[in-house]
Amino acid sequence: MKYTGYLLTAFSVAVLSSCLKVEEFPKEPTITFKELSTYADSARLTIVFTDGDGDIGLNEGDTLSPYNIEGDHYFNLYCDYYEKREGEWVLAPEIVIPFYYRVPRVTPTGQNPSLNGEMSVIMTPLYYLPGTGYDTCRFEIRLVDRNLNQSNTVVSNVFVKP
User: Which partner for 33 in 26, 58, 149, 154 could form a disulfide, CB atoms 3.0-4.6 Å apart?
Assistant: First the structure.
């Protein structure tokens, strides 16, 4: 009788866990803009992401091609800076240091490799380009995974330089 209780419990857990829906996402990352919080000299950008094969982020040691510093994929989060110039959104060509980031590797747990979550980056020391004569700005954001699959592009909220 004692073992019947254990077997019934094990069977119930197996049946219930088989009913749990496993979330499936495309292998390309998908992002949604959540928030850009601006402060005097810094900002925090937050996006929501999904990735079906769980290959988001880079390790510190990922510096060989195609992730080498001279290559196109050293960074994996790209925040292109736009200013509204005479009524049109223009990618600011004056940026010497772009708003590009290396997001650290995220490792999924369990058997399902899919990832979904939220990530934030702190943009500092400045999150805007001073001295251009234009004050209305926004970012266009995209994420690239380790297999070089590129996400969709999302647009941040519009902000005015302080």
Answer: 154
